[in-house]
Amino acid sequence: MTTIGVRYCGGCNPQIDRLRVVGDLREGLEKMGLEVDLTMDKESPVDILLLINGCMHACLEEEYLGSDPNQRLISVRGEMVDDRYIKEHYIPGTLIKRICSS
Questions:
Q1: One digit per residue, pLDDT tens: the chain, 102 residues?
Q2: Tally of domains within the chain
């Protein structure tokens, strides 16, 4: 089972519906039958850290980027996944592909 740590920004300037993106991600993973645990517990060890930033400022990256060079990290920054522009409704599918590529 893969454990994914989900971290949300404060939501001061959301360009996307962060909760819906993660909800659709969870639903998509379940439909595929993938054994994945999404956790918000900051103390739990995780295989992948998923940063859900509502906008391009990506304030979560200031806290998490570079904190552990061995930590696999996926960053959503508004309508961007890592450095690639993705329309909001395609973000969950893109995240599933990234998660499965590990």
A1: 899 999 999 999 999 999 999 999 999 999 999 989 999 999 999 999 999 999 999 999 888 877 788 889 999 999 999 989 999 999 999 999 999 986
A2: 1
Please check whether residue 64 is in contact with residue 42, taking contact to mean a CB–CB distance below 8 angstroms.
Answer: no
Q: Please report, for the domain that includes residue 46, its CATH number.
A: 3.40.50
What is the residue range of 87's domain? 2-100
pTM over 0.85: yes
List Cβ neighbours of 83 (8 Å cut-off, separation of 6 or more): none
Q: Which amino acid is it at 98?
A: R
Tell me how far apart the alpha carbons of residues 10 and 34 are, in angstroms, rounded to a whole number. 29
